[in-house]
User: Which sequence fits this backbone?
């Protein structure tokens, strides 16, 4: 499973990139607004830190505007992945951009039917929002399972990018289902390390080691 990080916070991206665990980055207009930075500048900087796909979302909703914005974003770096909304115009743009060699992430997916349309539009990634589906009392992980199963039936090239992840259980369940990618808020990625028995065991080992009076170097 590939790990992307869902943030436009450069300090977080730099810090987590050094872990060797990052395969890409996703941003959205809300995350860009939160960063307080210029959109194109911040995307350029992220692309220079992480070599994998960096999703940059268009703001236009009509085909012509989406294509104009995508042309600008594609020039920023080779690893920019154009993020488009799951709408008729977004998917039309997805098809054209993908045929032209661009990576495309189709966002705001909340149903298996929408995911099928994105795969048929040659999306590189489909982003189902698991947390937001859970938030309205539906089963977000069932959506992921349905999409993974459907894509496997037809060998679609589109990768399932699990978005709106709220905690480690979403990540584990998505990995068990065979989702290709999870995009994680930094805190969720860090939380994957945590286990009380690791902390307890390490404390005991260090105590016992100190008791030996030895040093390795
Ligand atoms: O970037 C898309 C998605 O991951 C947003 O998640 O937490 O705003 O529902 P969230």
Assistant:
């Amino acid at each position: 499973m590939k790990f992307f990080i869902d943030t436009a916070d450069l300090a977080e991206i730099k810090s987590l990139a050094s872990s060797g665990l990052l395969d890409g980055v996703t941003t959205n207009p809300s995350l860009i607004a939160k960063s307080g930075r210029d959109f194109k500048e911040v995307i350029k900087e992220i692309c220079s830190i992480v070599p994998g796909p960096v999703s940059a979302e268009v703001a236009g909703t009509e085909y012509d505007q989406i294509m104009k914005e995508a042309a600008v974003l594609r020039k920023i770096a080779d690893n920019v992945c154009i993020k488009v909304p799951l709408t008729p115009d977004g998917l039309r743009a997805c098809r054209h951009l993908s045929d032209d060699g661009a990576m495309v992430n189709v966002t705001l997916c909340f149903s298996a039917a929408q995911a099928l349309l994105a795969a048929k539009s040659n999306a590189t990634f489909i982003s189902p929002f698991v947390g937001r589906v859970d938030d309205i009392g539906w089963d977000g992980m069932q959506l992921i399972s349905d999409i993974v199963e459907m894509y496997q039936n037809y060998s679609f090239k589109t990768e399932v990018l699990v978005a709106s992840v709220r905690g480690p259980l979403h990540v584990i369940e998505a990995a068990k289902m065979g989702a290709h990618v999870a995009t994680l808020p930094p805190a969720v990625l860090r939380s994957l390390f945590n286990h009380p028995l690791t902390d307890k065991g390490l404390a005991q080992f260090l105590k016992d080691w100190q008791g030996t009076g030895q040093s390795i170097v």
Remarks:
- The chain has one domain: 2-192.
- Residues 6, 26, 28, 129, 131-132, 163-164, 183 surround SN-glycerol-3-phosphate (CB under 6 Å).
- DSSP finds eleven helices and eight strands in the chain.
- The mean pLDDT is 97.
